[in-house]
Amino acid sequence: MPRLRSQAAKNSLLRRVRRQRLKYITVLPSLITILNGICGLAAITFASKGAGAEIGHFSYHKLQLPYFALAGYMILVAMIADVLDGRLARMSKSTSSFGGQLDSLCDIISFGVAPAFLMLQLLQHRVALAELSLSMESFLARFIWLVAAAYFSCAAIRLARFNVENEEDESAHMSFIGLPTPAAAGVIVCMVIFHQESLPELSDKSSQAYAVFDLLITYALPFVTLGVAVLMVSRIRYAHVINQYTKGKKPFAHLIRALLFLALIIWRRQEALLFIFSSFALSGFVKWFYFKFVRKTEPLLGAVAPQQVQQQ
Question: pTM to 2 decimals?
């Protein structure tokens, strides 16, 4: 008899849990998070148009941009939305598990699928225009697809690991383990934007310099994509730039640096964004390499020196 009552109580509890539904959400942060995902979807749409359109430029009134560059700018807008939604949720003290899950779902679209698809479409378009043998073209197409798949897989793993290891305490968010997915996407996107916008402006398309830089960026892009994919799933620590350099009172030099970066972005946004994202991606790896290999050898060199002096 007690067993029957216990089983009935368990069944009743399970029914109550199943009936439990989400009743309240924070509207404004959730809307901004969804905007993040919509920008990722727009980036995928523009990237597909850039590969298939005869005229590879988007025109609206005075705005004229290559479709591939416009897809990159959509991903950059998604990054701004990704920063704002979390900031608003923490300011209003309305962070929730729902918001975190929604944010990750939108991030995998904007910073996982969209950059991989943009890279895939651009390189496949370049391969189709090149006069290559069928076997070489088939090999390159499969290699590019595998690079895109590897990037997407690493981005998904990075987001899933972040959800598991994330702490709600804001003081714990001073650094990241592994390259954040927006930063990884930023490196790819800014290379594409530089290739589509700045490179034709810097050199004439008919010149030899343009051909060299065009091939250099085209061939480097898949390997850079693989590099940032590995950095995403690594255990290398990266600084949380917004929390470390904007929270609380900071030295006056921080304001000067921020103003210089803003001026550089306004003056030459394509080159500035490429420099900023690439520098951030390399910063964590350089620090890790220094403390892992260079710093370890310094005490050994210091210990060997006195022995050599005594022998002399």
Answer: 0.82
